[in-house]
Design brief:
single chain, 148 residues, alpha+beta, three-stranded antiparallel beta sheet, 5 helices
Length: 148
């Protein structure tokens, strides 16, 4: 077995990552690597593991940036909808923002007592029942505040 230098290791790692992204099977990657690079199965698995770790690093770095971009873009779209009085799309954009932020239920603690909580609950009516034929729905959301 040949020991690869740093450049060769990087080249092999990038090639294996590319094959994986193209959907190549692990057995074919092992077969090709063993034949052409004269390396063992264990080394190929090490390359595969390194490729996956690198993808995780890249995705984690980009996640916060991508989330911020999506939120800011939706806020701009929301403002445009409000200016044009397009409230149906504005509401859908608000739903999309809430989904991105992971907001399903908002709980606010009372300043007077910790036992009392207020919940904002959004109930959606069945869309099939409220379809008025032009793709819009009447009374899609009912919002009510409940105290416990």
């Amino acid at each position: 077995m040949n020991k690869a230098d740093k450049q060769e290791t990087t080249r092999r790692l990038m090639q294996i990552a590319e094959w994986m992204l193209d959907g190549e099977s692990v057995s074919r990657i092992i077969q090709y690597s063993s034949t052409n690079w004269n390396i063992g199965e264990r080394q190929v698995y090490n390359y595969i593991e390194k490729a996956r770790k690198r993808w995780d690093e890249i995705c984690n770095k980009q996640f916060e940036s991508n989330l911020s971009w999506h939120l800011l873009t939706r806020e701009r779209l929301y403002q445009k909808c409000i200016k044009k009085e397009d409230y149906s799309n504005a509401r859908q954009i608000l739903d999309s923002i809430a989904d991105l932020q992971g907001l399903k239920e908002i709980r606010i603690k009372s300043e007077h007592t910790e036992k009392q909580e207020y919940h904002l609950i959004i109930e959606r009516a069945d869309q099939e029942d409220n379809n008025n034929g032009n793709g819009r729905y009447k009374n899609q959301d009912k919002v009510k505040s409940l105290a416990r």
